[in-house]
Amino acid sequence: MMMLRKASSASLSLASRRNISHCRTAFASRVVVDNLLSQDASLSSELTLPNTSNRTSITSIPVRNFSSAATALKEDTESIPPSKERASPRDSVQFTPTPERKYKFFQNVEVTQDGVAIVRFDNRDKKVNTLSFALSAEAKTLWNEEIHENNDVKAVVFTSAKPDTFIAGADIFDIQQLDDKSKLKTIIEGELEFFQKMKTKGVPLIAAIDGPALGGGLEWALWCDYRICTDNPKTKLGLPEVKLGLLPGFGGTQNLPALVGIQNAMDMMLTGKDIRPDKAKKMGLVDLVVAPQSLEKVAIDTAKGLVDGTAKKSKPKKKSLLNRFIEDTSPGQSMMWKKINEMVQKNTNGNYPSPFAIIDCVKYGLAHPSGNEKFRNEREQFAKLAETTESEALIGIFDGMTAMKKHQYGEDAALPVNKVAVIGAGLMGAGIAQVTAEKGYDVLLKDRDDGAVGRGLSYMSDNWDKKVKRRRMKRYQRNQNMSRVAGLTDDSESWKKHFSGADLIIEAVFEEINLKRRIVKEIEEVTPEHCIFATNTSAIPIADIAEGASRPERIIGMHYFSPVPSMPLLEIIPHDGTADCATATAFEVGTKQGKTCIVVKDVPGFYVNRCLGPFLVEVSALAKDGVSLEALDKAMKNFGMPVGPVTLADEVGVDVVSHVASFLSNADLGVRMEGGDISLMQNMVEKGWLGKKSGQGFYSYNGKKKTINSDVKAYLKAFASRDLGLKEKEIQDRMVSRFVNEAVKCLEDEIIADPVVGDIGLVFGTGFAPFRGGPFRYLDTVGVSKYCDIMNGFAEKYGPQFEPCQLLKDHAASGKNFHG
């Protein structure tokens, strides 16, 4: 019932179609948390690109663990309109019906000579159709006045007048506007009565879908007798409510399992993933797949066939013997539900209530198959979820992500970009080149020699081959992407000629300022005046890199997060002299690449890494206070982070973490980087304990197994100066408070524009517990005054590094929240 797509996560199978043992393992590792942030490749495999430009930053999160709530937002961001679909001055203008346009949300109903009524969704004020309270009221009027008592209507086709979009989901703003969420029960009951009234007319209902049919859009289609969709690449069907902490509320938890089977339905509802046309046909979600140009004609012909009996109404596909056992017998269901509950608990750690509510709704429906009790239970569960802080937090993330799709520099500020040159073909550079080529840009990929460029090209080719294998990309698209990328080396003079046509340069080489300055000088000599130079530095101030440049106004920071194809965040960092056109251009290119862009101030570490600095220092402080590695990881996992800090350091590289911590310790954070001892990691680097990539870090790695060996235990025992026997809550509060306080300090110092940017940055950039909504919403939930008291207590006990920043104190004193 919501309008959020999701996530491009890996395909999940709930139960095997071939082997009953899969029923015990099927609800694989991607439920809600697996959908909000991440994707396909693992960092450890990508660290095998051994060349000079293969730089990794502290924000190179291990993707297989960083599955979480944000990249349900990564590919989803492409299906969300550039501006939020909610009330606006244009929406508030009263609609005046005319004979040519009777309805605001629908075109006039057309009835063919054969009695087929064509109802076309068409919100005149928005780029997409969404199910709002106003649309629902108008739909009832339309149905009652033009269809229900009209004996000439023999069948009804529901379709959209808008190209490439059916219904993108329900309007979130309607739900947010309700102070009393219990009113949703009555509202949803009215919608259910409307759908049931449609059925009582006794004529065939056909949904003709081109483009997204998500949330409430798909639920509308599920009430129809027949569903036809197009093979348009933009066509996708799904129930993504779980990503907003909700559940399908227009009968979806009951109608979907009845149509596609319990296992397929649970897969869709618990992950919120999209179903593409070919799979939708195979699983019985739709009855026909046609070309977009043929959709309406085929729908009308099908409607006539359903009336005269030459076509048959949709029926659930016949189940295999195995699936009949799993879904239709008591022993099979018992085993299935047990495993589903176990895997949801494992993947959400009990922090997300909506998956459990979805399970309860489906089980309730199976126990009460007749009557409306199952729908009553569904809407009651929906209303309960709408009141939860988890749903508020997840909707806040969605709101923030949508808001980040627009910049403040004006529609015409950005320069046209056709050709992008990427310098450095390592992990970062190749990833940047990949997401750039995928969006239609011509790409130049340059490194020192053929070997380095070849590794970068192979990285992209391998990733695209995986997408083809997983049916997430057509073979011709893969070939098209490769054809857009030209590899160049330092040895070839031709690179200068190629670069003379570049509109944007993105540099992704070592974190060494003199190297970056030298590259700026070289590039300025061969590129046109309008060309923008973006550096992918993770911490070095942009103004320092621009020092001595001939066109400093064209220099900007574009800080990607590794691995680039999977991580959704992009920090854009203009220095004081950067022209607005450069910032706007970087923003629009990043958005087109599928990134959520935040503009942050040019300071050491920018925003995300700056917040991670004190957090990392506190990890060493806790180790000095006798907290074990396992306890550190467990505490933060239980808080809701995708990985613990120790595992994070090993995955990213202890050397990388040590470098960032050292850099920030010598920057401008002052006492906020004190309290710990970063020699913990410096000494490990000297010992060659670099983390997973070297086989030994905090943990020892043997294949997929990780253990703590005797050398590390002895090292940590010697490092610890005392054992305070700290409880998990204090461990969590000590680490998180350093993180959160720095985020607020960044707001105080205008490094970020507002709390929304702050929340989005840390959720999308570090995996900050999505169900908590980010550091600022977390403070609002806990209570700013209460959190200040916690930090003041720590300051007295452990030192001034815990003293709340002034803005945090101000909010505590005034009782003001960060979010309205």
Walkthrough of the structure:
The chain folds into three domains: 106-317 and 352-387, Alpha-Beta Complex (2-enoyl-CoA Hydratase, Chain A, domain 1), CATH 3.90.226; 419-599, Rossmann fold; 607-751 and 783-814, N-(1-d-carboxylethyl)-l-norvaline Dehydrogenase, domain 2. 46% of the residues lie in helices and 10% in strands. It contains 34 helices and 18 strands. It has an eight-stranded mixed sheet with strand order 11-10-9-12-13-14-15-16, sandwiched between helices. The two termini are 25 Å apart. The model is unreliable at 1-91 (pLDDT under 50).
Topology summary:
Blueprint: H1 32-35, H2 43-46, H3 89-92, E1 110-111, E2 116-121, H4 133-148, E3 155-160, H5 172-177, H6 183-200, E4 205-209, E5 212-214, H7 216-222, E6 226-230, E7 236-238, H8 252-260, H9 262-271, H10 277-283, E8 288-290, H11 295-308, H12 321-328, H13 330-348, H14 353-367, H15 373-386, H16 389-403, E9 419-423, H17 427-437, E10 442-447, H18 450-469, H19 475-483, E11 485-489, H20 494-499, E12 504-507, H21 513-526, E13 532-535, H22 542-546, E14 555-560, E15 569-574, H23 580-592, E16 596-599, H24 608-624, H25 629-639, H26 645-652, H27 654-665, H28 679-686, E17 700-702, E18 705-707, H29 710-719, H30 728-748, H31 755-766, H32 775-782, H33 784-798, H34 806-814
Parallel strand pairs: 2-3, 3-4, 4-6, 5-7, 6-8, 9-10, 9-12, 10-11, 12-13, 13-14, 15-16
Antiparallel strand pairs: 1-2, 14-15, 17-18
